[in-house]
């Protein structure tokens, strides 16, 4: 009896619990979900308290979201500000670097200008020293020429006192004698000729450009000095002159005569062969050839005794503005002249 009663009570309690679990909400119309200390309806209709709490929670969430967004904005602003500051610093550094480079460049330019100015000053000083040296050399040469001229005048005066009458040296300019081992005049006659030549050189404001060696090639040396500025082209000049003469024996001069007309003692071929030899004196014909080959006007100041024929000009057929100046101690030696 007791066991049956206990079984019935247990079944009753079990069925009651199951019934209340499944059908209790429909009977009492209230849920068991306690939210904010209240019980809302089973239809999920919230009470005013829950609605108020939800609004407060929503506002809190909105505030948190606003704060989060504000914080994000602040961080973005701080980051932009930092980037701007960093950019400004970089620009400032770049400006400082450019300013420093510009200062370095200006300093380099100043040093370069100073170096150039110093070099120009040094160059000017060297030029001035060279000019001064050349002037001293020219003065020394003029002094030596004056002394030599004075000595020659004294020698001439002594010859006059000794009643020595010089021979006429107004002879032709064509060389038919051959090599230079033959001395055509006595020493006294050469001295008189040199005196006349120096007086005429001074009369025209000229001076000796270079001492020409008397080795039989003096005319070629003088032409080389006038044309090339040195004595190294004498052999070349002789070669081209002789080659030109070989094929131009019939070349006509302004007076109508040909070059070969001036050769009496030998044939034209023999004359050219003789002129091709080293040491053979040049003559008027070789000067005509030089004028035609190099297209130059050749002016010769001669020592001949005649006062009307000592100034000789040889001009090429082709008009030229190029002039060279030679001196000539008649039948003895050619020299190279220039303006004082």
TrEMBL record:
UniProt superkingdom: Eukaryota
Keyword Manganese: no
Keyword Nucleotide-binding set for record: no
Protein name: OTU domain-containing protein
InterPro entries assigned to the protein according to its UniProt record, in alphabetical order: OTU_dom, Papain-like_cys_pep_sf, Peptidase_C85-like
Annotated coiled-coil segments of the chain: 119-155
GO molecular function per UniProt: cysteine-type deubiquitinase activity
Species, as recorded: Dictyostelium purpureum
The OTU domain, residue ranges: 207-340
Organismal lineage: Eukaryota, Amoebozoa, Evosea, Eumycetozoa, Dictyostelia
Keywords from the named record: Coiled coil
Gene3D superfamilies: 3.90.70.80
């Amino acid at each position: 009896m007791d066991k049956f009663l206990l079984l019935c009570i247990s079944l009753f309690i079990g069925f009651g619990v199951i019934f209340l679990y499944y059908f209790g909400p429909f009977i009492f119309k209230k849920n068991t979900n306690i939210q904010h200390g209240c019980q809302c309806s089973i239809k999920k209709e919230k009470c005013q308290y829950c609605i108020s709490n939800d609004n407060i929670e929503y506002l809190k969430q909105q505030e948190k979201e606003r704060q989060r967004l504000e914080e994000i904005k602040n961080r973005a602003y701080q980051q932009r500000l930092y980037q701007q500051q960093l950019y400004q610093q970089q620009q400032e550094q770049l400006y400082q670097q450019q300013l420093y480079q510009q200062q370095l460049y200006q300093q380099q330019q100043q040093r370069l200008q100073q170096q150039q100015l110093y070099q120009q000053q040094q160059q000017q000083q060297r030029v001035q020293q060279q000019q001064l040296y050349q002037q001293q050399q020219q003065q020394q040469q003029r002094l030596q020429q004056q002394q030599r001229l004075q000595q020659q005048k004294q020698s001439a005066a002594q010859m006059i006192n000794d009643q020595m009458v010089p021979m006429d040296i107004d002879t032709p300019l064509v060389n038919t004698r051959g090599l230079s081992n033959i001395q055509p005049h006595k020493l006294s006659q050469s001295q008189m000729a040199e005196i006349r030549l120096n007086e005429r050189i001074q009369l025209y404001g000229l001076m000796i450009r270079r001492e020409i060696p008397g080795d039989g090639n003096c005319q070629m040396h003088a032409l080389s000095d006038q044309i090339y500025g040195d004595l190294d082209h004498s052999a070349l000049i002789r070669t081209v002159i002789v080659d030109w003469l070989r094929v131009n024996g019939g070349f006509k001069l302004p007076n109508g005569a040909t070059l070969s007309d001036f050769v009496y003692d030998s044939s034209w071929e023999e004359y050219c062969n003789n002129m091709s030899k080293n040491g053979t004196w040049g003559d008027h014909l070789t000067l005509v050839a030089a004028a035609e080959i190099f297209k130059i006007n050749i002016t010769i100041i001669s020592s001949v005794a005649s006062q009307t024929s000592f100034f000789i000009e040889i001009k090429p057929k082709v008009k030229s503005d190029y002039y060279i100046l030679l001196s000539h101690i008649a039948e003895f030696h050619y020299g190279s002249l220039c303006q004082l």
